[in-house]
Specification:
By secondary structure, the protein is of the alpha/beta class. The protein is built from 20 helices and eleven strands. The longest helix is centred in the C-terminal third of the chain and has 35 residues.
Length: 570
């Protein structure tokens, strides 16, 4: 029946007649952007999506490549903090890389047609009561009803993290939820991948045909648990039940593995049934797989992994040479980053005393100054005697000889290698520090000891830059006092390297937080090199952001200016 038959005026429009020919599905746009982006931009996009709690693409469909691609590198930067129920009483938490953490994976796929939205159902399942969140794009969202052009076969994942509140948390432990877009018959490779990495796979369908039964029969012997969610259709119920009985013995199905969703099924009640099914799976000691382990499975199936290229892996080799030596952070810093120990601390104290002259006592001023300057030079000479360690030589090679993109990869790999090593100890120490802060009566010496422990357990790329700065400072001091000839200098090229990194958005630490010292000659020469590289034409306005810890200062600057300040997990 059309408008004329109903005698509806021309200025009225049927909703079904709305022209969508110029519109694009949101997932098509996302796939197009990611496929057009380099690996660093992909990392930024997925990081921002994760901050907004959107599901992330794990497998990108094959378009300009013969195979689909697993986005491992794009997720390497993500760290999350959660409190499993096992740590509820102690008020502890876990903070780990999402790529390295093994979790149960629950996958949802569609076979044939299905009249209700799988993605909308998943949003309901993952959302706490009265707090609906659209993790997955679904048909009832803006542009969600437009036919997909390139996003078929896209595999998305989302995470659920408990907060340690047993009466409010949906699940006691973190869980990965995967959502395959499109029919499994058309995307069998992606489905095969899910059957290998998942703890359980939920198959949504209206019925089972003979062809679909044949496909499902190939899953016999799989260790993965399979569940079926049927959208009840009376006309096909008999045939579906016959095939289901045959599949029951093949796939080890029982009554709890089959859920029926009819037209009169209460949605809220059905969501609770599904949540209970997932909770039961998690109690049954399910298979746990990390995204890094998923990448190995993907390779075996012929799926590309985004970081499997020479440009990414060559810098990784350099970074692993350094990080493989680090077992105990405090010990490594004492033995391999020697210029940042007590010598630097003493040097900083003498430098401060030269300005303040607080401990002069009865000593004549010029004599006292002379004593301090001699002590300063002795400490600089002591620093200058040290040779570069193997780790520092490799670090300099990485930031000096690799080309621009490889250099960026190298610094990222350094971060990904160093962060997990330091994170475990630091998390515990910060917890202790916060607890002590709540009780202001605690001994100040205890705070000082904790502060030292935190400092000793911290290790990032900036510590390697500190070390280079100290080598440069010591050399400049020796040259200034005439104890070294210009021809003997080894580190004149270091400020230029640091200036190049600044031009790429990487920060230069001006004041060291552990020693409260400014390596003045190093900072001056780095900024002079930066000015020279900019042609000496630019005045530099200084923008300062102040605020307490973990309030988003670095995130703000990174977002506004494309910088690389280290950020907390979120």
């Amino acid at each position: 029946m059309d408008k004329e038959e109903l005698d509806i005026p021309e200025d009225f429009t049927f909703l079904s007649d709305t022209d969508t020919s110029d519109s694009l599905h949101t997932l098509d746009v996302l796939c197009a952007i990611l496929l057009s982006s380099d690996s660093f931009l992909q990392q930024e996009i997925l990081s921002k999506m994760s901050m907004c709690q959107f599901a992330l693409p794990l497998l990108l469909p094959a378009l300009d490549t013969p195979k689909c691609t697993l986005l491992l590198w794009a997720m390497r930067d993500m760290v999350r903090k959660w409190r499993p129920h096992s740590l509820s009483e102690s008020r502890g938490f876990r903070e780990e890389s999402l790529v390295l953490t093994s979790m149960p994976t629950i996958s949802f796929v569609r076979m044939g047609s299905c009249s209700f939205s799988k993605s909308h159902l998943l949003n309901e399942v993952l959302s706490p009561s009265q707090q609906h969140q659209d993790f997955f794009i679904h048909r009832d969202m803006e542009s969600g009803n437009i036919p997909r052009e390139i996003a078929g076969g896209l595999l998305e994942i989302s995470w659920y993290f408990p907060a340690g509140r047993e009466n409010l948390d949906l699940f006691p432990e973190p869980v990965v939820v995967a959502n395959l877009r499109g029919d499994i018959e058309l995307h069998w490779l992606q489905f095969s991948f899910l059957t290998e990495v998942s703890s359980a796979v939920f198959i949504l369908t209206e019925s089972i045909s003979e062809r679909e039964f044949t496909l499902l029969s190939s899953l016999q012997g799989s260790a993965t648990k399979y569940y079926f969610i049927f959208n009840y259709q009376a006309g096909k119920a008999k045939q579906t039940l016959e095939f289901l009985k045959k599949l029951a013995s093949m796939l080890k199905l029982n009554k709890s593995h089959v859920l029926w969703k009819g037209g009169t099924t209460n949605k809220a009640q059905f969501v609770k049934v599904l949540q209970s099914a997932i909770a039961a799976i998690m109690k049954s000691s399910p298979k746990r797989v990390s995204i890094e382990a998923m990448a190995e499975t993907a390779r075996q199936l012929g799926i590309q992994v985004d970081e499997d290229n020479k440009e990414c892996q060559t810098p990784n080799t350099y970074a692993k040479e350094i990080t493989a030596q680090i077992k105990d952070v405090a010990k490594y810093k004492r033995e391999k980053l020697r210029l940042q120990g007590e010598t630097w601390r003493n040097l900083a104290e003498v430098d401060k005393e030269l300005c303040r002259m607080r401990k002069q006592g009865d000593t004549p001023l010029e004599n006292y100054k002379s004593q301090l300057k001699k002590k300063l030079m002795d400490l600089c000479a002591q620093q200058n005697k040290h040779d570069l360690t193997d780790g520092l030589i490799t670090f300099i090679t990485g930031i000096e000889h690799l080309h621009h993109r490889e250099k960026h990869y190298f610094l990222k790999w350094m971060k990904f290698g160093l962060d997990p090593i330091a994170r475990e100890n630091l998390s515990k120490l910060w917890d202790q520090y916060k607890e002590k802060c709540k009780n202001s009566k605690d001994d100040p010496k205890m705070f000082a000891e904790l502060d030292k422990l935190i400092s000793a357990s911290s290790l990032g790329v900036e510590y390697f830059m500190h070390e280079l700065g100290q080598f440069y400072e010591a050399e400049c001091s020796m040259l200034k006092e005439g104890k070294m000839a210009e021809s003997q200098r080894q580190f004149t090229h270091l400020p230029s390297i640091a200036a190049d990194l600044m031009l790429k958005g990487f920060p230069l630490e001006i004041i060291d937080g552990d020693i409260s010292n400014i390596p003045l000659q190093w900072v001056t020469d780095v900024l002079s090199q930066l000015d020279a590289k900019l042609g000496g034409r630019y005045r530099m306005p200084v923008l300062t952001v102040l605020g307490v810890q973990s309030t988003g200062k670095s995130t703000l600057l990174n977002t506004m200016f494309g910088l690389q300040f280290a950020v907390s997990s979120g």
